[in-house]
């Protein structure tokens, strides 16, 4: 790298005239559900067979949520929030440890969620540069596929849960890069 190359601006990895949700990066801002969100961190999941998904930790100044992006045959976007596993069901952690399987149906705040799939995978936080960590997840959906619930097992007795919804790409708007992008 020459002396003058140091002063050149790095070219963005996106089309600045058409920034899409897949282009999100740390510091980017966007509008969703009448609120402005800032991307704070990026996580990546490896599901095997060269299939990867991304999750963005986002904040609107009041709360932290997670925006998931999956591109398979079509773009799937999820808007999730962490919940306590015991809030889903009092003995859920005990059941998961004993059976290594969740119930086929869980009801939370009046919504019935049905087990859709179990997926082993690897996770790492791109922003922090962490090493890949093995985990297992169970994905649940309501009958319409709009409401989502995910339970993750990180260790023999460590579980996390999140609930949320599936959103359409057009619902995320006014995507702008951070000031240093």
Commentary on this structure:
With 181 residues, this protein is mainly beta. 7% of the residues lie in helices and 49% in strands. The chain is built from two helices and eleven strands, in the order βββββααββββββ. An eight-stranded antiparallel beta barrel has the order 2-3-4-5-10-9-8-7. A hairpin with a 5-residue loop joins strand 9 (147-153) and strand 10. It is globular. The two termini are 21 Å apart. The model has no long low-confidence stretch (mean pLDDT 91).
Topology summary:
Layout: E1 29-32, E2 35-46, E3 52-59, E4 64-71, E5 75-83, H1 85-88, H2 92-99, E6 105-108, E7 111-125, E8 133-141, E9 147-153, E10 159-167, E11 173-176
Antiparallel strand pairs: 1-2, 1-11, 2-3, 2-7, 3-4, 4-5, 5-10, 6-7, 7-8, 8-9, 9-10
The gist of it:
By secondary structure, this protein is mainly beta.
- Give me the Rg, rounded: 18 Å
How many distinct helices? 2
The spatial strand order of the largest sheet comes to 2-3-4-5-10-9-8-7
What is the arithmetic mean of pLDDT? 91
User: What structural category arises from helix and sheet content?
Assistant: mainly beta
What is the distance, rounded to the nearest whole angstrom, between the alpha carbons of the first and last residues? 21 Å
Helicity, in percent? under 10%
Quote the beta fraction.
over 45%
Order of helices and strands: EEEEEHHEEEEEE
Q: What are the segments in which pLDDT stays under 50 over at least 5 consecutive residues?
A: none
Globular, elongated, flat, extended or rod-shaped: what is the shape? Answer: globular
What about the largest sheet? 8 strands, antiparallel, barrel
